[in-house]
Amino acid sequence: MRDTRESRLLLVLLIAIAFALITVDIRGGEDSPVDGARQAAATVFGPIENGVSSAVDPVGNAIAAIRDSGERHDRLAELERENAALKARLGSDDRNRSRLQQLDKMLKVAGAGQYGIKGAEVIAIGAAQGFSWTITIDIGANDGIQRDMTVLNGDGLVGRVTTVGPNTATVLLASDPDFTVGTRMEGSDELGFASGQGDRPLRVELLNGKARIKKGDRLVTFGSQADRPFVPGVPVGVVSRVDPSGGDLTRTLYVTPYVSFTKLDVVGVVVQAPEKDPRDTVLPAKPRPTPTPTVTVTVTPGAEDAGAENTEEPTDGQSQQEQDQ
């Protein structure tokens, strides 16, 4: 339709009629005179409206899906972040649980030996002041740590304090070649001196060259004068090899230490020695030997007799040989 004066007048007239019908419909309420016309229009145009709605709904659903997918993506990302945080927390809990187990084990050793200890964490390893097997712990003079104090953990002897700073200290490990500690054999009380050999077993020189020692025997620290640098009774290790005496004045043993020097985390510095020597009470319980299964073979008498009969009967060849003889 062209934009003419007549078309404009027609548009204005239609709008006026629409407003008039709306006014009459509102004032009439349920008895509106145009109610029949509205129902007829709904009957005619309802299916068309539904069809248009059906055609438009997938588009709306797609838009909603896109919007919801974004929300789901955000939720997925949030869940992934929560899972990562949970895994990190679980990992931290595992490490804390391991440390608590180490601390609990160390406290049991300290209780068995009546050692007054101060717990510490290993914060560094490596060379320090010419020593090749050392660790640094996170306590020092401000915590009452002094030079030549015994260091242990839940397994046994770790080493001795060599250098002390205000908040840290250096510990010479028992595996260092410059390390030496007096030892005593469990049960026999044979005395000796253990020296470190790096990543190899400790070398122990027993004072008694005729001492009867076997593989599996255990050693503890003998202790030092005034309990410096070593308190008595700390587990050292287990005999893994015994060299023949050969008539020497001393006897050489090789001892596998209880402590794994490459896995140190929580240690304790003995700040108060026991009132009396704990002797062998700090040593762990001996492992129970595994029973060796035995197999019993039973032979029935009938089978044995049959075997005897078969053995006594000569063959034809044997009979002929006997006749020839």
Short description:
A 6-stranded antiparallel barrel has the order 1-2-5-4-3-12. It is α+β, with helices and mostly antiparallel strands.
Features:
325 residues, alpha+beta, six-stranded antiparallel barrel, 23% strand
Characterise the protein shown here.
With 325 residues, this protein is of the alpha+beta class. The protein has four helices and twelve strands; from the N terminus they run ααββββββββββββαα. Strands 1-2-5-4-3-12 form a six-stranded antiparallel beta barrel. A hairpin with a 4-residue loop joins β3 and β4 (157-164). The radius of gyration is 47 Å and the shape is elongated. It has helices at 5-28, 35-113, 301-312, 316-324, and strands spanning 116-125, 134-137, 150-152, 157-164, 169-173, 180-185, 191-197, 200-206, 218-221, 235-242, 251-257, 266-272.
Question: What's the SSE blueprint?
Answer:
Layout: H1 5-28, H2 35-113, E1 116-125, E2 134-137, E3 150-152, E4 157-164, E5 169-173, E6 180-185, E7 191-197, E8 200-206, E9 218-221, E10 235-242, E11 251-257, E12 266-272, H3 301-312, H4 316-324
Antiparallel strand pairs: 1-2, 1-12, 2-5, 3-4, 3-12, 4-5, 6-7, 6-9, 7-8, 8-11, 9-10, 10-11
> Are there runs of 5+ residues with pLDDT below 50, and where?
52-60, 319-325
Radius of gyration from the CA trace? 47 Å
- The end-to-end distance, rounded to whole angstroms, is 147 Å
Succession of helices and strands: HHEEEEEEEEEEEEHH
- Strands, total number: 12
Based on Cα principal axes, name the global outline: elongated
Give helix % range.
Answer: 25-40%
Number of contiguous helices: 4
Largest sheet composition: 6 strands, antiparallel, barrel
The class by helix and strand makeup works out as alpha+beta
Average pLDDT taken over every residue:
78
What is the spatial order of strands in the main beta sheet? Answer: 1-2-5-4-3-12
Strand content: 15-25%
